[in-house]
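Final report, Chapter 2: Outcomes

The project's central promise was a pipeline that accepts a single protein chain and returns its three-dimensional structure in a standardized token representation, suitable for archiving and comparison. That pipeline is now operational. To close this chapter, we reproduce one record exactly as it appears in the project archive, with the input sequence first and the structure output second.
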Amino acid sequence: MKIVVAHNRYREAQPSGENTMVDSEIAQLTAAGVEVLPFIRSSDEIPSMPRTAKALLPISPIWAPRAQEDLSRLLTAHRPDVLHLHNPYPLLSPWVVRTAHRHGVPVVQTVHNYRQVCSSGIYFRDGVICQDCKGRALGVPAIVHRCYRGSAVQSALMATTLAVHRGTWRSVDRFIALTSAIADHLRDYGIPADRIVVKPNAVPDPGTPAPLGDGFLYLARLTPEKGLDLLLQAWRRHPVGSLGTLRVAGDGELRPLVEAAAAERADVVYLGQLDRAGVRAAIEASAVVIAAALWHDVLPTVIIEALASGRPVLGTALGGIPYLVGADAPHEPAGTGPATTASAVAGHLPPPAGPPAVPAGPPAVPAGLVTGEAGWVVPPDPAALAAALPLARAGAAARAAAARTRYERTFHPDVVLKRHLDIYADLAATRRR
């Protein structure tokens, strides 16, 4: 099988889980015997482009002529079975879909964000979830609020691109939705359900999980939409030391918040930006991983890493987080565990193995908490998150094995790769028919 993988890499100075996942998929596909033809551009190329190429940059999200010429030559020379598109902006353009179809090559796209509708791609503006552009022929609110790169001009170009390419996106042969929430987004956009496949990303298997540590780990970019402030507000509602240690890893504009919290409380530790070994050590030192997003976070990789290490997750009930922890029923594909809504009945969670270092008696169950196979989700509210913290700490040991099982069944590279190859085979067969 011969596959073109098309991706516009984000700048290397901007940490990108999407870049990492594309690299990982290419390596896995190659190892599985697939002939991968990378069609890659990088935003890091822009500063060194000749003046004539830079002059065309404003229109490249709509139509990138050089990219189409290069892709056309590649398709003619190699006659691939499928083109797999990830991010097309700004140097490829969604026009690559049309170019592939002109050559008779079916297209699959992995949807990593909400940029079919939202110019910024994250449905988040000025500290709150924003979907003002949904259902509009042109995303005027994105222009008014300078949602793309803080520029009215660039926002107008992106909003125009999304309007121009609405038909292009609806012509894609198959969409890979990373979670059930992205599948819902695509259906809402008008994509037929039979052209959407839920296939998450995978992370490498770290092996047999280490014994549970203690306390909590929060690992994310320290930016407003990731919910650091929400977490710190919730944490401060508990006496110092009553929940073990809160470890915070990552970097970004909100770093001063966590540095102040670490100076204020002995039970908050700021780990800074970690390498892969540091991430694994931090996960192993903790009992629960927290994902406190305030936006519809598509697929926080740290959650899959936590499950792989047998750590349950406490998250907000937004985006892909409920899917990842198995708390999004009835949307989950067959074969994954059901979620149940918590009640105020004492002892709702199975007791932990061994006495927890928390006050006697079962923690109160917060309103809105949903218990999934591998963790819990709550509304993005300080009171709800604060109430869930002792509950998650008490229940971590009881859900550790289920967290690892969910990873093995749903997010292990072998499982995800098989699903990936099946998608390609189905599209290639459709082309031959």
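Archive annotation: Residues 148 and 154 are 6 Å apart (CA to CA).
This record, like all others produced under the grant, will remain available to the consortium after the project formally closes.
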